[in-house]
Amino acid sequence: MNIAVIGTGYxxxxxxxxxxxxxxxxxxxxxxxxxxxxxxxGKSPIYEKGLTDLMQKNIEKENLHFTxxxxxxxxxxxxIYIAVGTPQGEDxxxxxxxxxxxxxxxxxxxxxxxxxxxxxxVPVGTNEYIKEKIQSALSENITIQIASNPEFxxxxxxxxxxxxGDRIIIGSDDQSALDVLEEVNADFHLPIVKTDLxxxxxxxxxxxxxxxxxxxxxxxxANLCERLGxxxxxxxxxxxxxxxxxxxxxNAGIGYGGSCFPKDTRAVISVGKDVGYDMPLLENVIxxxxxxxxxxxxxxxxxxxxxxxxxxAVLGLAFKPNTDDMREAPSIFxxxxxxxxxxxxxxxxxxxxxxxxxxxxxxxxxxxxxxEALDGADIALILTEWNEIREIPLSDYKKYMNHPxxxxxxxxxxxxxxxxxxxxxxxxxxxxxxR
Length: 435
Ligand SMILES: NC(=O)c1ccc[n+]([C@@H]2O[C@H](COP(=O)([O-])OP(=O)(O)OC[C@H]3O[C@@H](n4cnc5c(N)ncnc54)[C@H](O)[C@@H]3O)[C@@H](O)[C@H]2O)c1
Ligand SMILES: O=c1ccn([C@@H]2O[C@H](COP(=O)(O)OP(=O)(O)O[C@H]3O[C@H](CO)[C@@H](O)[C@H](O)[C@H]3O)[C@@H](O)[C@H]2O)c(=O)[nH]1
Prior knowledge:
Oligomer: single chain
Low-confidence stretches: none
GO biological process, one term: UDP-glucuronate biosynthetic process
Keywords: NAD, Oxidoreductase
Distance between the termini: 64 Å
Mean pLDDT: 96
Strand order of the largest sheet: 11-10-9-12-13-14-15
Pathway: Nucleotide-sugar biosynthesis; UDP-alpha-D-glucuronate biosynthesis; UDP-alpha-D-glucuronate from UDP-alpha-D-glucose: step 1/1
Radius of gyration: 24 Å
Bound molecules: nicotinamide-adenine-dinucleotide, uridine-5'-diphosphate-glucose
Helix content: 40-55%
Number of helices: 19
Strand content: 5-15%
Binding site for NAD(+): 30, 35, 86, 121, 263, 327
GO molecular function: NAD binding; UDP-glucose 6-dehydrogenase activity
CATH class of the largest domain: Alpha Beta
Number of strands: 15
CATH superfamily of the largest domain: NAD(P)-binding Rossmann-like Domain
């Protein structure tokens, strides 16, 4: 099938590449000229495992094309995916500016009937709004249908998730649009759930809100474990064996970040407000997460009282491993707080340093490797559990630091096996090791 994908970010690019991989003719459209120029050279502007290889393969097979021109991009395409950003607006609601602009550009360029498929995460009712906006601007002989196909990929494993997700949700109030999308998605060989338009939009928000709730819940339990002498790893393990609870998403840490959970939880509260419905549970999920993001700094201050002039090594900046994304990364809040208290921060991340520089500028020192960050440091903070960081031997902390005091926000070390002598080790929801 001939498909256009609008927006070549984490979702649009992965969607376009994977739709090409299963045999479609895909044209990706973006207004960012620099991005499209990079993509045309077969390079990926984002760090996502397996993406570049798959992209180059499909460019060579002539299944995958890139353009900034909507007229070129929409020509002959009956299926048009929208995957532009829906960032958080100032009042917490989803900012639909990019959706508006993309809809206007579709309306101006579309010359044939088409199905518009929204991949972007949008408030319930937005698809109806998009349909009305585009249809009312088209000439009378062109008809569009609308469908919601929310995306559930995780950054860092986006290509894997596209081919191995738990389900594909397709929502439309138009049976023929549902049938076309079912056929297109059949080649992913995943369970397909067909539903109505509004429910599909709601499934996405409800899923992210639930996952965020699970994280704030386990983080709150971790904080309680610390005060009661229990170990959250053992607690999560025991809880997760109950199939009704499930073992995934129970890793306590320094809170959730990224481009989705923070903004989507706020957007759900905002759509609730629009219809006069308060959501105290989600309000508190967000509140618990805000507190959790700086919990390591609280632990540092409790241990040292004063950190002015101390060298603090920060290991990991990205909001999670295997991505270069810094959006809402807990490292931003931790670093800012350490700087406020007068610490000299030396940070290392295997991939996200360039993106981090755009946010943290020259306020911190960017180390080229783990050794540079740890060398002569008084305190080490582990913020992202990249394998490279998980696998740093404790002997390295001893070798490079003055006296190793580690604050691990991701519980990378097994308390029993790996903590040896001469290392003071603080983690989340587990006893402090100081021997
Ligand atoms: N990042 C994720 O892991 C993820 C997962 C699931 C769903 N989502 C949702 O998918 C959507 C996209 O997220 P993302 O992370 O890929 O965003 P992104 O910011 O990485 O990419 C958005 C892209 O859209 C382009 N764009 C903006 N306006 C445009 C226009 N008028 N025409 C063409 N291109 C335009 C931008 O230049 C950019 O390249 C959001 O609604 C997000 O909530 C994201
Ligand atoms: O047990 C866990 C799991 C995750 N996290 C944190 O939670 C955040 C989000 O992690 P993850 O869900 O793996 O990454 P995202 O790429 O943000 O993916 C989420 O957000 C996407 C955008 O909507 C959805 O598509 C995905 O299904 C959803 O998992 C990160 O800060 C993680 O460090 C934890 O602290 N503990």
